[in-house]
Amino acid sequence: MMRGRELVNRIAAVCLTVLAALSLASPAQAEDGYDLWLRYAPLEGEALERLEAFDPVSVTNSGAYDDPIVRTAVEELHRGLEQLLGRKLSPMGEENGIVWLECKFDDDEVPSGSFGIGSGDVPANREGIQLVGVDPVGCLYGVYALLRELSQGADPFAISTISTPAMPLRMLNHWDNPDGHVERGYAGRSIFDWWHLPERLDQRMIDYARANASIGINAVAVNNVNARAMMLEKRYIEKLARLADAWRPYGIRVFLSARFSAPRDIGGLDTADPLDPRVAAWWQAKADEIYAAIPDFGGFLVKANSEGQPGPQDYGRTHADGANMLAEALRDRGTVIWRAFVYSAEDETDRAKQAYEEFVPLDGQFADNVIVQVKNGPIDFQPREPFHPMFGAMPNTHLMLEAQITKEYLGFASHLAFLAPMWEEVLDADTGHGATVAEVVSPVGMAGVGNTGSDRNWSGSDFDQANWYAFGRLAWDPTLSSEQIAREWAAQTFSREEPFLDAVVPMMLESREAVVDYMTPLGLAHLMATGHHYGPGPWVCDLGRPEWNPCYYHRADAEGIGFDRTVTGSDALSQYAPQVAAEWEDVATIDPAYLLWFHHVAWDHPMPTGRSLWAELVHRYDRGVAKVDEMAEIWTGQQEFVDPQRFRAVTENLAIQQAEARWWRDASIAYWLSLNGLDLPEGVQPPAESLEYYRSLSFPEAPGN
Ligand code: GCW
Q1: Is the model's pTM score more than 0.85?
Q2: What structural domains and CATH numbers belong to the chain?
Q3: Exactly one of 76, 273, 358, 380 is catalytic; which is it?
């Protein structure tokens, strides 16, 4: 009997030793990307010595505030430092702490979340790092900023920064449905486990909050803007309250996408007319119910009268009538975010003009707690669009920017396209109304349509994590350069070795332009296949509504190609301020990047490069394909810097992108050739297959639809 138990114990002991050895050995072996940019890979060499000079490092919370966010800040700092140092630290809160947190400044002039970091005297008359937050969340952001610097190998004593968020609202919008499907999601199922909430809170919800807080994101709309009214029911409010409780210590407020017809759908009313007092009373009671469960509830995000969603126009009311009624229900507590992504199924107007036409006349009519959320461009998250003409045109309305982090039109999760340069392009655009887009939206905020899912790496691919990261960093500070963002992300996520960064950062910076080149060069747009938007479909011309068809957007025929949006065409150009319109109205001087967005031109139209339009178009396709080949080659050279699992994952995605870039190029060229009957320019490779072949491809199972 005794001998048997002894044997069992021995075997157990041996197993434990082996397991311990394995778990020690494994981190360097393979990484699955779950840790995102919060890997805090152990420092080495000089960087380690510099941090070790702090010995004994501990973290002191000088104020000892009993605040959950301060507690998060202290824990995060402790955790990050331990990982960077590769050893345990003395307990938190010791008086000999070398990082001194001061988390309550009480200055109303300084925006919430601001912080400063510098070296200076800390208790026990020693030199250390002082971190001052204007409020608890300022401390939290300061901690992440400090760790970001240290992770990149910075000298702790040389860190000196004061940072203030440019925008109050830095938000993610999730197009996640309650059944777990994510509209335009390419990273698996939804991360929100509504089925098991509120009883069960997945650890992912904490890790998600950490990731968001680390880049300054402070608000999350948890459900699809194509909303189910069910999400407003009591049982869902309870689920949402559990998330709100879990995220509060990370400074994140929850928002709900609200279906405008909810009073009818779940409220037992026969109308959702915003001017009907019963409807207003229903929303008021609903808001009261939500605030009883979630005192810091952010508010409602609404897609109304767009793509079949219900809205105030169903009752002959305006967007302002609808938004203001909801705003009244949230008054002094929350915000209504009303989307400007509208185009009517009955309207013959150029789709690019419709949002401006519906909203600009309402300028000044929206309640103070209403924000109008405007996509970066006037159509729909294309690889390149000019900025939306509403920016700057509604000086008496709170406008915020909506960007799409998930890459619906840029190759899903398999194509590498770093989006910071695209967002930088729109943020830096001069609206001609005395402000850049960044300046217009800075008093309000920015929302990004999330790219997270149940995949271990969160975003469906390692490089798509960079877009989540970049969105948060730009919402915090739209003047940050794409290069800085790429550098800090790549250093934290993969390797802080200079040769690696010098190779990978330029590759990231050029990646989005490569997608523009092989999909929609020279201002073309919306040529993707129907529904799922996966792959090319420029030949689609026969769908029910004109603006569902790629042909509507490219308008190509035997003579030429492009959408005339000048005064001789749809005149969408006149929605821009005069000096902006002037830049784009002349076909001879317009930036070729926007040429076919605003002009219909002949195939032999001379381009600034000396090529004909046709030759230039083909040249751009080839340039895009060549760039992806180059990216794949650059990545091949990075093996020594990256763990095998992620190295292989990226390699395989790049191989997909190489093949699909060719597919886009070949299918597009084959189709244009069928219209213009021209020869291919000298030395250009003909498409690998016939047009019929490309047209015959179909992918009903493509994700995200
Ligand atoms: O980009 C388009 C998408 C729709 C989306 C819509 C929107 C949520 O194809 O899937 O719906 O825009 O922004 O409302």
Answers
A1: yes
A2: 2-25+518-563+600-696 (3.90.1330.10), 45-163 (3.30.379.10), 169-493 (3.20.20.80)
A3: 380
